[in-house]
Amino acid sequence: MSHREPTTPLEVSGGDRRGSALLVTMLTAVLLSGLAGALVVVLSTEEAVEANHRRGVVALYAADGLLTDVVAELAAVPDWQAVLNGLRRSTFSTGPLLVSLADGSVINLRQETLDLQRVLERADEAGVSPQWRLYAWGWFADLVHETDRGRLVYVAAWIRDDLVDPDADSGQDATGRVVVRATAFGPFRTRRAVEAAVGRESGAVSVIAWGLVR
């Protein structure tokens, strides 16, 4: 009858243990590096979204500020005929019609006017579209007298006759109502626009309707 030696657990040499520890360390380092990279991407995205939101809010306030200023000017004008014909402009109309923003993008107000007119003519089923007239434009910092903070946002406002005016002359105001659109342009293609219907009744000027342009 043969004699069998008792079995013993398999022993691991010191070199094998060091190799295993090194492999675990390398895998852990790769995993942590990947997590760190993902965290950087998430944080960068959140910062970009937050910065874009801030720029949008600033632009919206700037557009609304210019609109308020234009309505105040219209209240002081007894006859809007010259405004609708483009013969009268705002006192805030000293800026260039072609301007470069901080990021290098260019705003062309002549082209903006043409684009507004095309959109209006496509939407006007009556076929007799009033004319958008550029009325006010310039750096928002100049409008609020804060040039020391830099010129980052450019604003412009257009005025046209309303679409329900019964006459066929787009420059003739027969209803005592006009439409004002104010747009603010900021860096990184930031743009916000507001539009208001403004009416005059018994000598008093008021905003009849106001809305954010999408």
Describe the structure.
This protein has 214 residues and is α+β, with helices and mostly antiparallel strands. It has one domain (32-213). 40% of the residues lie in helices and 25% in strands. It has four helices and seven strands. The strands form two sheets. Strands 3-4-5-6-7 form a five-stranded antiparallel sheet. A hairpin with a 3-residue loop joins strand 5 (177-186) and strand 6. The chain starts with 13 loop residues before the first helix and ends with a strand.
How would the blueprint of this fold be written?
Elements: H1 14-75, H2 81-84, E1 98-100, E2 106-108, H3 109-123, E3 133-139, H4 140-143, E4 154-161, E5 177-186, E6 190-201, E7 204-213
Antiparallel strand pairs: 1-2, 3-4, 4-5, 5-6, 6-7
What keyword list fits this structure?
7 strands; 214 residues; five-stranded antiparallel β-sheet; 40% helix; alpha+beta
**What's the β-strand tally?**
7
Instruction: Name the strands of the widest sheet in spatial order.
Output: 3-4-5-6-7
Which geometry do the CA atoms define?
Answer: elongated
> How many DSSP helices?
4
Give me the secondary-structure category: alpha+beta
What is the gyration radius calculated from CA atoms?
32 Å
Strand fraction band?
Answer: 15-25%
Residue ranges: pLDDT <50 for 5 or more in a row?
Answer: none
Number of domains: 1
For the terminal residues, how far apart are their CA atoms?
A: 97 Å
Output mean pLDDT: 82
Sheet bearing the most strands, described?
5 strands, antiparallel
Oligomer: single chain
Helix content: 25-40%
Q: Give me the strand/helix succession.
A: HHEEHEHEEEE
